[in-house]
Amino acid sequence: MRKLFVVSILLLAFPLLAKMYQYKDSNGTIYFVDDISKVPDNKIDFATAVNSKFLPTKIEEIDKIRRLVLKNRVYYKELENQLFALKAWVQLIINSGNSSFKTYQENFNNIDIETYNTKKKQIAFAKQLSGYFKIFENEWLNTYEVLNFISSGTPEIDTLRKNFKKSPTTPQNIEERIGLIEKWGNELILKKDSDQKFLKESLKELNERYDIPNPEIPELVKYVDKLIREYEKEQNR
């Protein structure tokens, strides 16, 4: 418990409502920082701003407590309800495929809330729980996308969409991705509520950039990444 308490206190150094940025290291580990200047120079191009919009779990008992903690940063009331919300929330995250959060589940199951029977202990416990909420808010960004993923209906395209979140386009994978983007764009054009003009023009520009003797690969890579992000919005329209 003591080690996790220290981790929680460190996490509370980040304002819960501040703008955050995330990036991945070479091992795929995700880092969150509160200032773009803290992102390593070689990761700047791939850093993304974390969406500060409240992403609901749609479970009232969890979302009510989340809002209270986000508002107060450290919420000294309803400690039992906070622990209950965390237990329910961690189960959602585990069910989405993140087995690493089973450690938190085990920690919660071992907590005897009755031992926090003095004001000093309750304040310390509230700070610890706030740290857990911060960890879960960060992870929920990824979990929310998994739980709300709308399939294109084509496995190869869905694999591209999921892999893109882990690894942007490179000169090595660009040819394969362009083929899938063309297929994806043509499928999106068939959707009744799609932006026909944008899709057709974007596919035309992609061909113009690629179907030449010596394409500008760095610029093409950026354009492919841009199209994937924009087509994702079209997919979820």
Description:
The protein is built from nine helices and three strands. With 237 residues, the chain is mainly alpha-helical. It folds into three domains: 103 residues, no CATH class; 34 residues, no CATH class; 81 residues, no CATH class. Strand 1 and strand 2 form a beta hairpin. The longest helix has 29 residues.
Chain-wise SSE layout:
Layout: H1 2-11, E1 21-24, E2 30-33, E3 48-49, H2 60-72, H3 79-95, H4 102-109, H5 119-147, H6 155-166, H7 174-189, H8 196-210, H9 217-235
Antiparallel strand pairs: 1-2, 1-3
Number of domains: 3
Shape: elongated
Strand order of the largest sheet: 2-1-3
The radius of gyration over CA amounts to 22 Å
Order of helices and strands: HEEEHHHHHHHH
Number of helices: 9
Provide the β-strand percentage band. under 5%
**Helix-strand category:** mainly alpha
Task: Summarize the structure in short.
The chain is mainly alpha-helical and 237 residues long. Helices cover 59% and strands 4% of the residues. It has helices spanning 2-11, 60-72, 79-95, 102-109, 119-147, 155-166, 174-189, 196-210, 217-235, and strands at residues 21-24, 30-33, 48-49.
List keywords for this structure.
single chain; 237 residues; mainly alpha; 3 domains; 59% helix; 4% strand
